[in-house]
Amino acid sequence: MTTNRIKNIVSKLLSDNYYILKKLTFDYLMTDGRWVTQEREVYDRGDGAGILLYNIEKQTIILTKQFRMPTYINDNADGFLVEICAGMLDKDNPEACIIRETEEEVGYRIKEVKKVYEAYSSPGVMTEKMYFFIGAYTDDMKVSHGGGLESEHEDIEVLELPFSDAVKMLKNGEIHDTRTIVLLQYAIIHELLKDGH
Q1: pTM value?
Q2: How confident is the model at residue 163 (pLDDT cuts 50, 70, 90)?
Q3: Which of 59, 73, 126, 175 has the least CB density, counted as fewest CB within 10 Å?
Q4: What angle do CA 120, 80, 163 make, to 5 degrees?
Q5: What is the pLDDT of residue 149?
Q6: 8 A C-beta contact, residue 180 and residue 159
Q7: Which residues are paired to 38 by β-bridges?
Q8: Angle of helix 178-189 versus helix 163-171 axis, rounded to 10
Q9: Burial 1-28, CB ≥16 within 10 A → b, else e
């Protein structure tokens, strides 16, 4: 989809050290009919996928806990966040990505997932689109202890907890990750498990 409200886009690479940071200058047609020149810094780290894993029989979910430096420097005292299992898309599709990430991060080999949302993570500055999934797991799907990839220096704690506890954590403000909040609220709204209210 294109728009005729943007023209003369000029892109300047600021960094490609890990992901890509660009400065974009462009002309934008205001609602009142004036053309104005605007500048934006845009960070391209690719797209991601995340999943809420749930067990109907045990009424549990699986979350992760890991250190996040950006939160540590912005008011998160120890830098650790409780999150859904998530990862960046490689050259695969979102479904294949989240199935792979589930095994790497939490040690469960799942075969089926259901996409429930796709949304931009932080559209004012990032290109990233997140694909949100839910997926049922059972104990017999456990193939390893998880924890992430050694090659990527991942150090992920796997948390299996009653859904009711996760809902309490959500209500008490103990969960600070937007992706996790979105999927927990999805589970509550759609009554995926008991004790969601």
Answers
A1: 0.90
A2: very high
A3: 73
A4: 75
A5: 67
A6: no
A7: 26
A8: 120
A9: eeeeeeeeeeeeeeeeeeeebbeeebee
